[in-house]
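TASK: fixed-backbone design
INPUT:
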């Protein structure tokens, strides 16, 4: 019963990672037409701002997909009973780096969000930009914390193995 529950929880998380990847790719294909469709028309005042914002969003998809792949690998390690291994630590480190890269890209594009918000008179756009900077930072800190916890657990296990 416990083994089945563990497999089903990792299966659920694997499906969630896969669905999240599909959703992000779907947003990538629809972002140009839906989100920036009006702004990219000729003569619209925000045309020059929409292109760099769209490019920044597309660039961040690459580290996001790498981070999702690393999360999927961690789930595979959990299934293989290798959750507390160097492989997991490396995957968590890669997730942390990807989150910092995403946050950095959006941080550099914050002036564009501000100009876009001013031109459209929509303060929510600036809030969205701040969330896009803050959320990856939280994920980076969380993955750094998990990385340290896994390392501590591995050290404790090695110490206990030497004691016995």
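OUTPUT:
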């Amino acid at each position: 019963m416990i083994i089945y529950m563990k497999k089903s929880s990792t299966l659920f998380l694997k499906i969630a990672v896969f669905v999240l990847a599909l959703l992000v790719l779907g947003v990538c294909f629809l972002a140009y037409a839906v989100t920036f469709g009006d702004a990219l028309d000729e003569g619209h005042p925000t045309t020059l701002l929409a292109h760099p914002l769209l490019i920044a969003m597309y660039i961040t998809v690459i580290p996001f997909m790498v981070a999702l792949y690393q999360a999927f690998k961690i789930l595979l390690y959990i299934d293989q009973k290798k959750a507390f291994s160097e492989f997991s630590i490396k995957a968590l480190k890669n997730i942390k780096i990807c989150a910092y890269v995403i946050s950095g890209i959006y941080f550099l594009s914050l002036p564009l969000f501000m100009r876009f918000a001013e031109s459209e008179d929509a303060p929510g756009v600036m809030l969205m930009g701040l969330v896009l900077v803050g959320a990856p930072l939280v994920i980076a800190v969380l993955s750094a914390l998990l990385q340290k916890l896994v390392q501590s657990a591995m050290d404790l296990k090695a110490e206990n193995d030497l004691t016995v």
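COMMENT: Helices lie at 2-35, 47-79, 86-108, 110-120, 123-163.
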